[in-house]
Amino acid sequence: MSDFQPSNLRLPTPGCYADPDRSGLTAENVFDGMTEHLFYTLGKLAPTASRHDLYMALSYAVRDRLMTRYLAGIEALSATPTRVVAYLSAEFLIGPQLGNNLLMLGIQQEAAEALRRFGINDINEILDVEEEPGLGNGGLGRLAACFLESLASLEIPATGYGIRYEFGIFDQLIRDGWQVEITDKWLKSGWPWELPHPDQACFVGFGGHTESYRDEHGSYRVRWIPAEHAIGIPHDVPVLGYRVNTCDRLRLWRADAAESFDFYAFNSGDYYGAVEEKVGSETLSKVLYPNDGTDEGRRLRLKQQHFFVSCSLQDMIRNLDARGIPITDFPDHWAVQLNDTHPAIAVAELMRLLLDDKHLDWEVAWNITSRALSYTNHTLLPEALEKWGLGLFGSLLPRHLELIYEINRRFLQQVRLKYPGNEQILRKVSIIDEEGDKAVRMANLATVASHHVNGVAALHSELVKTELFPEFAALWPEKFTNVTNGVTPRRWVALANPQLSALLNESIGTGWINRLDELRRLEQFVDDSSFLERWEATKLGVKGQLSRYIHRHTGVLVDPTSLFDVQVKRIHEYKRQHLNALQVVAQYLRIKNGQAEGMAPRTVIFGGKAAPGYYMAKLIIRFINGIAETINADPDMEGRLRVIFLADYNVKLGERVYPASDLSEQISTAGKEASGTGNMKFAMNGALTIGTLDGANVEIREQVGAENFFLFGKTAEEISALSQSGYRPWELIGGMPELAEILRLVEQGHFSNGDGDLFRPLLQNLTGRDPFFVLADFNDYLRAQSEVDLAWADRGRWNRMSLLNSARSGFFSSDRSIRDYAERIWKAESFPVTITCELD
Predict the structure, then answer these.
(1) Which residue in 110, 154, 97 sits closest to 14, CA to CA?
(2) Is the pTM above the cut of 0.85?
(3) Of 482, 500, 523, which marks where a domain is finished?
(4) Number of domains into which the chain is organized
(5) Chain-centre distance of CA 501, in angstroms?
(6) Tens digits of residue pLDDT in 47-61
(7) Which residues are the active-site residues?
(8) Domain limits at 286?
(9) In which family does this protein belong, per the annotation (predicted)?
(10) Which residues contact 379 (CB under 8 A, 6 or more apart)?
(11) 754 in a domain, yes or no?
(12) I need a surface site. Which of 159, 235, 630, 707 has the fewest CB within 10 A?
């Protein structure tokens, strides 16, 4: 019998390798690792290996190097328990992994050298092979990804919990100007970054009924008898920190059937019925955000949320059990963050596990739950605050509905004591919405149970307290706080913008990569004309790369010396891409009417997806493309104006766009955008912002200086007052002749091949109700755009403003955000992993 024990394993460390082919960081080590994986893992010989084969081989070789740190961290936490952050999110838009992990390990050059030995002279040929993981849709998921990377870089133990979606939300094509959705088969060629752990599967129930009984001590208990089950199989993705040993994990759950094949049904001739349960269960992790426009779609969404939350909480409890830690110590070992309301069912599920499985008393279980959970609110829009009808909820999660009723009963009793006889407050704060079709309010549930509730920008957090949850804030003022979002400078500058990174490294050193406040040292060059010329040349080089990409994918030639005016984000009315489109038409008309003096030559770039069922957002995409078709075909616009819509906008494309942008369009209706994170990525890369006082724009303007920000539009207070006084947009048009001409041109079908009806719903929306105050801000927006033209004409001034935007963007690092969470909400501390090695 072998005397080997896991504790005897000596883990290799950089500079000391038990197996250099698996751990070494030299080019030779990487080459050897690739060769081994080509042969043993992929079954290929180097001379016949395709680019995809080389991508897979390099990825496996890099993953080998993550394992040393990943396993060392697991061993360290087992030996010295500490509080671990559990970040629950329906989305993790993590982006391509190979380039990022090469950066984290510091072996980009070594990998490039290894590839040259395979005949690949440009590493980007291999990096471009990687599919974007379809695990998220927009800002919510990208924020979660930035946070996980910062947690690892700050050496804070963490696990991100989510769903391993087989298909992403969709890939976007543009046909005849319209968005067309096709299946995002991101796993079709394999994904080398995950580690399946079928031995750690969890069972999850749905439907059925509950029954009460007395336990052996005579205590009243309830058991849930589900009608169906699914199995959650965890797949771990290592998340390495920047140049540290800490390697956290993203644990994604794949759904499987509890009984995959019914032999009796098969033998009876019911071939579909034999696999029906398997098909139904696996649907849970099939696609990100199924359409909730139908009852079945809503049912699937709720099942998805319960599925990943239940698996995750079971996993946390199992972890404590395996280490012999009492369940009452749960909050001392797990800080559970609810990223928006998607995981809010965690309140009821944790209570169920504690009451029904662990047989704790209510007060003890509630104390554990409320000490463990915290909740991030990401929106003020009522339609985005999840509510589930009681019929659907009760049929799917009967035990959870019972628990929510009891949580609500106890909570409302507290409210009655504070506000006796005030039924209006009771109706507002109740977890159960009693108006119309009764429903469970998930935001209220999360707020009642969590020890902290935070917004994601200073303005947003204030509006959460004063407009969204004022009654809760009055009850528990200590609960509410702000943590302004941030983005990781590793991916969004160091990886995405190597030209700028090289200039920064040369001028201020490399410390900025993990201490972004060091960008402030750039201010010493603000009056250095030779440095500003290098700054501009760096930007021009990146714009040239994007120009070539645009030509390859759209056929449109753009001038890289023109002003790149960019709005890339999810398409939504409140983000007001149609306001931007209208100002493009204004520029078009000025050029046509001979009024173009002083106007900067512009390339206006749009990108983003509309939800499949969101007609107005899809019509806005068609509107933008109609404008683009007209302008790009007009010889009068040559050298003056181009309009581009980049299809299928994602992280991979964002890494091309943010570094090349001159002007960042952050033009949402004030009070509607919670934070925004694209605005931060633009600023870090030296783009200037034109925007409203909305979301994190407020703090960006404070940080970079009002003189380096193009402000326009009504404030949140003015918007609110205008709404309350009875906003009548049609009355504005008579006093705005330029707008009237634009609307008339659209109505006549000028941008729709003469079809005057195509954009009629959009025009009716704008001139009738105008719910997001596009016309109210239009003239001031044009004024701010004229200020942009003036600034662009003075190259020295523009370059100084650009440099200062980068220099003063340190506050918007996700490292700062995570420090705020760790200190104020999670009480989580850095836990450096020390890897030791002895040479025999």
Answers:
(1) 110
(2) yes
(3) 482
(4) 3
(5) 24
(6) 999 999 999 999 999
(7) 378, 569-570, 575, 677, 681
(8) 81-96+131-482
(9) Belongs to the glycogen phosphorylase family.
(10) 340, 385, 674
(11) no
(12) 707
